[in-house]
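Operator note (shift B, R.M.): manual run for UPF0102 protein SAMN05216387_11720 requested after the automated queue skipped it. Running by hand, logging everything below so the morning shift can see what happened. Input copied straight from the record, untouched. If output looks odd, do not overwrite the archive copy; leave it for review.
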Amino acid sequence: MEHIEYGYQLKGSEAERYVEGYLQGKGLALIERNYRCRFGEIDLIMQDQMVVVFVEVRMRCSQVFGGAGSSITLVKQGRLIRTAKHYLASLKSIPPCRFDAVLLSGVKGEGMEWIKDAFCE
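Run finished. Output pasted below as returned.
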């Protein structure tokens, strides 16, 4: 991330905006950001052709406790699934969908890994 100044630490909302721009550059279109309901929150809801993509953005400065990927626990996955179902219930028809994770590492988010179909129901 070249636009980040030396000594600057990326914050959660900035990380989500960075990932949003990255995914848009890969052809996905934003539907909604920070979708919230009583079950939880989905960072980004995007469209990848005919597929609705629920994106979880995780950032960790260090790998000490397993890094960003290990923070998406089964409990967190359950919350995301329930939140996605809540969102889908508002639609006229249920489209194909998937859960992606974008993992950022380092204080400036310099390492990024996009995992398509990170988990399923």
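Quick read of the result: Confidence is low (pLDDT under 50) at residues 1-9, 64-69. The first helix runs from residue 12 to 25.
Leaving this for review. - R.M.
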